[in-house]
Amino acid sequence: MFEQQFMNALAIGSVYALTAMGATLIYGIMGILDIANAGAYLVGAYLGWYIYHATGNIALAFIGSAIAVGALGVLLQKTIYSPILAKQNTLSIIPLVAAVGLFTMSSDVIRLICGPYSKSYNFKTSADSIQIGPIVLIPAWILIFALTALCLLVLWFLLNRTKLGLAWRSTANDSEIAKVCGVDTNKSMALSYILGYGFAAIAGIMVGILYNSITPALGEVPSYKMLAIIVLGGLGNPVGTVIAGLLIGFVEVFVSAYTNLPIPKDAIAFVVLIIMLLIKPEGLMGQKNKM
Amino acid sequence: MEELMKIEGLKMYFGGLKAIDGFDLTVNKGETLGIIGPNGAGKTTLFNAICGVYKPTGGKVTLEGKDITGTPAYKMAKMGFARTFQISKPLRGLTIFDNVLAAAGVHEYTGIGSYFHKSHTDDIEDKVEEIILETGLAEVANKKASDVSLGYLRRLEIARALVTDPKLILLDEPCAGLSNFAINEITELILHLKEQKRSIVLIEHNLPLTMKVCDRITVLSYGKKICEGTPEYVKNDKQVIEAYLGEEDND
Amino acid sequence: MANAYLFSIMATVAIFTLLALSLNIITGYAGQAMMGIAAFFGIGAYTAAILTTNGTPFLLALLAAMVVTGVFGALLGVISLRLQEDFLAITTIGINFVMAAVFNTLKITGGTLGLTTKKPEIFGVRMNNFHFFILTVIIVVIVCLLINKMRKSWFGMALASIENDPAAARSFGINVSKYQILAFIIGTALSGLAGGIYSHRMGFISATDFAFTVSIQVVSMCVIGGLGTIRGPIFGAILITSLPEILRFADNYRALVYSLLLVIMVRFMPGGLLGDDSPIWKLIVKGYRKFVPRKKTRADLIAEEAVSAGAAPGTQSVKQEGGLA
After folding, report:
1. Fewer CB within 10 A of the terminal residue: chain B, N end or C end?
2. Domain assignment of residue A165, yes or no
3. Residue C266 has pLDDT above 70, yes or no
């Protein structure tokens, strides 16, 4: 039983980490709390569904959806977010309000185009479950673990081993100085959105497979839970985000499995967040003087 | 000479970094004292530790004999410490006039009680007008702070300090980033304040300016005082020359 | 019963106007990112509802709702001192979700079943929508007058300074923490008052009335109208509350139109339709000035005199332009 819960928590935590990673990358460069990332997650899940059901190829669904949604992200960055940030004297909640508007729009567009009812992925594998010792593994879990690991590896490689990644990190550190040093900060922003929205799309498909159901309301819970996770991880810190995502996954699964708390599962992330902020206001992995 | 502010053994550590390490200073009434030092010597940190932005790690600051170490910034302002910022901090959405007026209310910000007192009274406006004329801000008085140039913003900083009727004015690099023309104007303004026998502490990077306006100069290097005296004395001090030339070598 | 329908909408508009004005004090004047005003709206609503159910007179219950909500607001104010801007935005979102969950769970708030309130009596008359509308409008007018007085006081000057630059505010004697907490107390207390009226006008409340989406709606009202002004939140509240009624014919596209409007607004006019920098507002002011010339402020007089005395404005500044800001 414990082992089962553990694997379940790991799967959910992985999805959280991947969803929140997009928001973290965007915050790292733009300083925007991009709730609309949850819209990318929703759109990605639907796009993946259409591709999978048209071709029967799940790999194509993942890749096609991630690329398309990533491109959409860059489009939004160029037409909405960057122009808003370019204006002087805007309150910090203005970009957040824009993100909320975009997110609401995404849910509604999906509802109008794809219908309000749930769709099933019906992802088929050769075996229903795999038994390893006391643990029963669901193939979807293995897919999630493998894909999350792959995404994080790609991210790590991009950020730490490529020129583009160096530009990204210097922009995240201080965009003004990076600009002076000849770094194309626009490229870094675009990279954030391609990766951020692409990852969200992949996470959306993973959730669609895991629960075998997608609805236009799919993005609602991640939209705010994602915010709690990126703050826990120390706003803009990719490693912290992975840890915080897993942490929330575990707390949720184990708290609802072993205790009788009177609050719903989806509020737990924020209870953890509020408690943590009271103890350590700069975030789990945040640096005190960095902001 | 009458002693106004005294700093004894001031320490300001950030983790392992000793930004200020045992600093002593006496400021007398009516004098203009300069604090110079190479980049990163800890000049602005010193200001922040004196003015209550940081709580000093150790040491003592007294004003007219009263211990005021670690008093929060807003209380320091009420006690008569007026500081300017190296990176101008105007209230961008307000006019220059209202910027000065906001500072003129230094003793009015009492909490709930301040709701019952009008801000734009004739008395206050008269006082603000006087300071605005004195600091040469008249032609931009009705412009928003976000719409005026850096030279004006620096003078605004000084105007906001003056309008609080300070016992001591702390100027943090008022000329940083300005053109020669604007530097001359600020120099004139500081000399004008000096004529009024105001007590001033000036942090500067610009040596000729400091030499010109200061009665005494203290040299800070790596958080420690390495020399103090008249401009003439400091200019010829071996350690000072080393500190500055040594730095230029690294450049 | 066309009138009854109209009054029901008007009462809702008035209540949300009050709520938008309350948020405007925290976010517009004091500059604090508050994304969870609905939580405090809810605290006021439940407090008043529970009190009147137990026999407390309506007006007294409203007063108590203000006090209780204000205490919670003070708590948030203290927390806000420890948090940076973005953290505060997320924390308030979190508080909204947690409070909605709490309303949905606690026995005293009726759990998932919600709470039913009795229509209160004022001066022996059982209140209907018309009465609620009148009561709320009276309160809104009083609040507007009080805010107007605030803006001309040192209190208003303190908030404006903090909103612009907290470090500068400290340098001329403003206890930023104190004023920040006061702004939270005043703003949340007003939202609690709006909540108390809301729960009695609706006759029934449940946790969904105080969900995060409600907070977003109120933020939208302020942003679309123009934060930091009195007219902005009022205009925004009227627009956003009556929009669904106007769009009734296009029911299916309501959320889409609404969110599209929001995105277009913040993209092209982040200061709001009636904000100080809005072209629309400038046009209105220009038209008005044709009939009523602006009274010159002291600042105008000083500047005019200086300019006529010789130095044309900006001549010096051109030469002075130098280096980094």
Report:
1. C
2. yes
3. yes
